[in-house]
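One thing: can you check what follows?
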Amino acid sequence: MFGMSITKRWLYSTIVVITLILICVAVMVSFVFKDYYHDYAKDRIYSISQSTAIANYFSAYLNADKETFANCARSYVEDFDYTNICEVWVLDREGAVIVTSTGFMPQEAVCKDYDAALLSSSGKGEWTGSFASGETVFALTVLLPKTDGINNGAVRFITSLADIDRQWHNMNILISAVCVFALLLVFFSGWFFIRSIVKPVNLLNDITKRIAAGDFAVRTLSSDRDDEIGELCRSIDFMTEELARTDKLKNDFISTVSHELRTPLTAIKGWTETLRDVPAEDTQVFESGLRVIADETERLYSLVEDLLDFSKIESGRMTLRLTLIDVLAELDMAVYVFKDRAEREGITIEYESPAFTAPMMGDADRLKQVFVNILDNAVKYSSVGGKILVTALAENEQLIVCVQDNGCGISAEALPHVKEKFYKSNLSAKGSGIGLAVSDEIITRHGGSIEISSRPHVGTLVAIRLPLAAEDQQDGKDN
């Protein structure tokens, strides 16, 4: 039960600290109350000693003989009105007890307060201690006025502190019980609270291990909680769903790439074996075979380039070689490369090179790669007789390149995902599914954006926005 690290930290940092605090508070409160009631008892004895007017009562008998003084002492004790509060003794000139309010003479007179009074300038002395019986008392001795420096006796007031100590002991039991109750209350309330955290955390730990093992169907059971644990559970569920989707895309990607690699390799291998057996004079077959091999090799090269670029993006190793270029020159080159291919597949590309220039700080090879990817997708998803319109215009210090086709289009469900890695809206189409993700990364790193709109069976419009170079950048290049 106590092997959980969170529980241990809670016990050490909370329960132990609270226990120490309660002990300190209990001890402090206990002694404060004890001192308070002892002081109250002492103050009351001092008040009684003053209210009885000792000096006035004994003033006429200070020089009297022992018998007369003893009679006065007995009269004082008999008239003493506070016997329910304290006991009173009268001591003679030698410090011997003459009379007590109880009527019993003490068997052992511990008069440390009397000795203290003799040494005190105020003529008063006090003592707190225990008699031989074990009873705790407070004693106050008040000396009678001296005559010619000679002691004339004293009056001693004694009150028992046993009731106070008994109440103090009972109060200590009560304080201890309150502290224990408070500690138990903190312990159990904290324990249930900690368990409400530790239990779902342990569950989440098991779930994350299952997720790490590849079980993406598992879900948390605390996602309906309206607290941080519930938020964490919902985040883990969302992460699991994303991992499951990414895993499916990865599997689809591997299957697609395997097919994309196998198809051109099969064609290359087949034509290589065919050309090996074809007579040398059959030039037409040689030309057809070499054309197929060249096309399929280019296709393999493009696929490998996409994979390498994707790897660089994932590892953060993709870098751009930025120079001042005319981006329209790269667009012209990409369109020129695709026109022949499109015509062979019965597709028309309409493009009129703009009369203006579009200078910008960019990587010419990477931008050309983007235009090639976009045009490749337009051709790939167009059918025979299709038309692709390429336009470019400058607006608000931006170059906007639009590639519009009238091909199969993209569904509304698939459109938000087309720029995600591994995603293919049409699994039957050629391609790895990462070309558009790579293109989006390249354009983003140039400070631009790719916007895609599409309708099924109507066509797709891809708008590439790129920032044009500022005048000071162009002047710097000219100089």
Remarks:
- DSSP finds eleven helices and twelve strands in the chain.
- The chain has a mean pLDDT of 83.
- The longest helix spans residues 162-212.
